[in-house]
DNA sequence: GTTAGCACTCGACCTATTAGAGTGCTAACA
DNA sequence: TGTTAGCACTCTAATAGGTCGAGTGCTAAC
């Protein structure tokens, strides 16, 4: 049995109706609404087929039908194909966009929080955004300064002007000249290097050149490695609107709500989502995970829509919307599309 | 009518039983359990009085009694008085303490997250902790470094070794000598000053001394002010275990759960709690808010226990536990007490 | 292949009915 | 006068029975 044109139309009708009402939809409803005037009996026959094929489900024998994960998948694929076409046809006007406008923010953190909030309030679903991640961590500048007699502070600037600090305690006081020499050594050797490329041999060579001060070099390198590692480990993720899940009865029971909230609290689970999205995202950069498809265990009852935004070559992050499987995919896809676009242009202006 | 000794005993028995079972407690239960052997009838009479006095409530006519906010308040006050005594008598042994032990953490943020997590998993309630706030922001060290030709990075270290960075774009390249001069000027003038004490006249004087470079001075001062202000505005708060509320049926219905989760998401509400605690905390530093007493609107159905920890003179933060009104106050008070103590000693060791 | 018709199913909702826990009150007791 | 036994009463939670209606599956006719 294959999915002929009529079956497709009926399936889409069922899903759309269900998305609007949130209740199982019966054959009569479809027979009335649809352009292809067919009796409820015929619809019923087709529906039976669709159940067999796994596109829709019957909660119980004498109830209407609801879409299965497979059904949603069909719908979303269809929808995204349409969107593709639309976007080629005309540049979208930005009418419903006002609410989306993100205030100009000076700090990255604040900006990201605002984006998350904007997303969640606009869609009424839960939202998340990951801080941009620098795939290549290239060192730009290193500076050691003496803070107190036995204590220096290392300032490490990497590509994209992310700044890290590390305080280093030293055994013996260090004089200005040596400090200057160390700074020269560090910068001439390391500037422009990717963190991954700092090999042991380079470090050994630097230590040799540093002579007595080899210990400090080691500490600085450690500090560099440490701060980068820390950065990789806990990818910053901002969330907003987790409480929105309570608006959807199918997610609001204790068991499920607790799982979802937990995922939002323990950002580690969301980290998965980010990596998954970054690695699998296709050319469009938008990804839809339905139910069981979700990379986050605790969100198997949700749908998750993610997208990557790009700040600059090799620097990107992920935004995501988490809601019920019967979410308004149309709206969510538009919103997320617009937002990534806006983010891109914003970063261009805001690049510091 | 006043609260005589027998009434007190009965009241405490009711509350303790309710804390254990979570169900309305009847007169028979009390008459059996209690040392002061009285018949259920007598207990009933007393209970009626206690209802009149507002210490306990009757969910419906033929049900047992549950404590009112006023009842809980009585219980907690009693408990805290006892604790006071206990602590004077003997230094508490640290037997149940293992789980509480917080791993040594190098970064403040990670430490705070761990503390929050430790609190929530140990108590099975929700927990929060605010980053330590420096009441007096004293400048310790300022360093300008050239990063690129037209760009310098200002590193600002304040009391407690909190480090802020600010990138400053300048119109014309600056030479090493001038940079050195500026650094000297900044440090000799500002070191050791409290932020609040940097007056306009001081700034004017510095600008005058800086001559051509007055613009940079202004930018640095702005950066200092800015970074301090940003710090004050969004007080960092870390939370953990919000999902624990689902373990308590009286908090787990949609309406209430949503409110509580929202409070945890929008940290602004928790900020209130921190300020409230900091300003009102008595000598012991532990505060208990029961139901309506809570400074956080969305937590009127919870009890909130907070405490201040002190890192150093004038530097403190707040930890808090949020749970149902029938929380195990005894355990919570002990835990929070121990944790603040441990935090204090940890900060002493970890002070860098 | 499509449709009308009809018996059937099953959850949602409403209404007793019952059981049990707990009360309030009265009358007797120390 | 405070305490207690006894008893009728109240109210909830749980169970069972009954009805309604939406929706189905199937058959037979078109």
How widely separated are the two ends of chain A? 58 Å
Helix content of chain A: 40-55%
Number of strand segments of chain A? 11
User: What string gives the helices and strands of chain A in order?
Assistant: HHHEEHHEEEEEHHHEHHEEEH
How many helical stretches of chain A?
11
* Helix/strand/pairing category of chain A: alpha+beta
Q: Could you characterize what this model shows?
A:
The structure is a homodimer of 352-residue chains. With 352 residues, chain A is of the alpha+beta class. The first copy, chain A, is built from eleven helices and eleven strands. The longest helix of chain A has 21 residues, at 69-89. The model of chain A is unreliable at 90-106 (pLDDT under 50). Chain A binds chain B through residues 107, 110, 140-141, 143, 145, 147, 153, 155, 157, 161, 163, 165, 167, 169, 230, 234, 239-243, 246, 252, 254, 257-258, 261-262, 265, 352, and chain B through 107, 110, 140-141, 143, 145, 147-148, 153, 155, 157, 161, 163, 165, 167, 169, 230, 234, 239-243, 246, 252, 254, 257-258, 261-262, 265, 352. Chain A binds a DNA duplex (30 and 30 nucleotides) through helix 3.
């Amino acid at each position: 049995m294959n999915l002929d044109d009529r079956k497709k139309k009926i399936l889409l009708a069922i899903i759309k109706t269900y998305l609007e009402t949130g209740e199982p939809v019966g054959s009569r409803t479809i027979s009335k609404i649809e352009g292809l005037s067919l009796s409820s009996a015929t619809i019923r026959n087709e529906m039976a087929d669709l159940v067999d094929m796994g596109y829709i489900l019957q909660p119980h024998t004498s109830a209407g039908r609801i879409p299965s994960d497979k059904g949603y998948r069909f719908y979303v694929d269809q929808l995204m194909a349409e969107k593709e076409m639309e976007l080629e046809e005309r540049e979208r006007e930005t009418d419903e966009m006002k609410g989306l406008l993100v205030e100009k923010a000076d700090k990255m953190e604040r900006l990201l929080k605002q984006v998350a909030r904007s997303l969640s309030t606009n869609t009424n679903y839960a939202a998340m955004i990951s801080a941009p991640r620098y795939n290549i961590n290239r060192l730009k500048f290193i500076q050691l300064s003496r803070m107190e007699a036995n204590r220096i502070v290392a300032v490490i600037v990497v590509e994209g002007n992310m700044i890290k600090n590390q305080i280093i305690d030293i055994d013996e006081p260090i004089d200005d000249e040596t400090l200057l020499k160390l700074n020269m050594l560090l910068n001439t050797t390391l500037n422009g290097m990717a963190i991954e490329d700092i090999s042991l041999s380079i470090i050994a060579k630097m230590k040799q050149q540093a002579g007595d001060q080899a210990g400090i070099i080691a500490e600085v390198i450690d500090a560099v490695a440490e701060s980068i590692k820390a950065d990789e480990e806990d990818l910053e993720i901002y969330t907003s609107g987790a409480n929105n899940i309570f608006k959807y009865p199918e997610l609001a029971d204790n068991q499920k709500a607790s799982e979802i909230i937990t995922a939002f609290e323990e950002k580690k689970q969301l980290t998965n989502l980010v990596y998954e999205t970054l690695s699998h995202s296709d050319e469009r950069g938008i990804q839809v995970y339905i139910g069981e498809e979700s990379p986050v265990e605790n969100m198997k009852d949700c749908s998750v829509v993610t997208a990557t935004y790009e700040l600059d070559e090799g620097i990107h992050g992920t935004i995501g919307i988490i809601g019920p499987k019967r979410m308004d995919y149309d709206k969510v896809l538009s919103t997320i599309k617009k937002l990534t676009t806006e983010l891109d242009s914003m970063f261009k202006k805001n690049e510091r």
